[in-house]
Prior knowledge:
Blueprint: H1 13-36, H2 38-45, H3 49-61, H4 66-70, H5 72-76, H6 78-98, H7 102-130, H8 136-143, H9 145-163, H10 170-188, H11 191-195, H12 207-210, H13 214-245, H14 249-277, H15 279-299, H16 304-329, H17 337-366, H18 368-389
Helix pairs in contact: 1-7, 1-9, 1-10, 2-3, 3-7, 6-7, 6-10, 7-17, 8-14, 8-16, 9-14, 13-16, 13-17, 13-18, 14-15, 14-16, 15-16, 15-18, 17-18
Amino acid sequence: xxxxxxxxxxxxxxxxxxxxxxxxxxxxxxxxxxxxxxxxxxxxxxxxxxxxxxxxxxxxxxxxxxxxxxxxxxxxxxxxxxxxxxxxxxxxxxxxxxxxxxxxxxxxxxxxxxxxxxxxxxxxxxxxxxxxxxxxxxxxxxxxxxxxxxxxxxxxxxxxxxxxxxxxxxxxxxxxxxxxxxxxxxxxxxxxxxxxxxxxxxxxxxxxxxxxxxxxxxxxxxxxxxxxxxxxxxxxxxxxxxxxxxxxxxxxxxxxxxxxxxxxxxxxxxxxxxxxxxxxxxxxxxxxxxxxxxxxxxxxxxxxxxxxxxxxxxxxxxxxxxxxxxxxxxxxxxxxxxxxxxxxxxxxxxxxxxxxxxxxxxxxxxxxxxxxxxxxxxxxxxxxxxxxxxxxx
Length: 393
């Protein structure tokens, strides 16, 4: 990975990116385990699965205030935002460890989500400050391995710990690892480097300029459309697979392996193509492929094997598309990078919420073809928005 020359006394950007990625694997492992190990958590707390799902809904709802949370790194600096986000995440895990009850889980998961909504925009903004735009696609693709890595590395690790204890056992372990990551980040992002970008801090006061920037508004609309399309299928694909092919819970859970591989492939495509083709052209290609993938999924529903291929193509298309928006978004409002990335998170959260409402209605009314067609149309709209309003790379 090429980067600019490292100033004397500073740690290489590559080392920072490596630790950012590993830290995100740890944080996303804690974030995703609520769903990955939902039955064990529900059984341990002696509550229904719907009760645990409600915690997930409440947690996701905090994405609506992501612009306020993300602006922390613009107000007080990238280093402060990164440290605060990670501290909040660690605090959330410790709350659940000390109070393994339903209210404790609710509070802890909300703290964890808030920490993530502070940490991620701060990291993206820091990379936007330090890595040249021409090389930023590969760098951000590596950092985003922290999402799929949580599935392949974090998931088995958590399962191993639960098997040797209970659903609480992984929490202090993950908190301990995250604390080591925090110490490492304090060392490799010295205050002197954080001060280097003092002039870029806006304190969130330039939010008005975001709404006067056509490209920025277009980017928010774009990720909004992508999120609705993905959730409209995410929310029903398990029901569709179980109903069409009679899959039991264990067999249905094995499809998560297909999704995990697809996520890595999608992130790899972005890292390979974004810098080579240019951020806008790569995203144009991604949206085109994703729109086609939305139609391929129902088209391949004639057998289980074909359906798994369709699921794989769909998730490759989605992951390639959503991560391709990140490098472009980091440069649309350079003076308020973290705040704008928080607004992107909020737009994604609203899209997901609407998608979870739209998906079941489409499936019950038209079947999986309804979900696929509407998702494809939403991506075509996103493509038109991209081409019409984001004119330069």
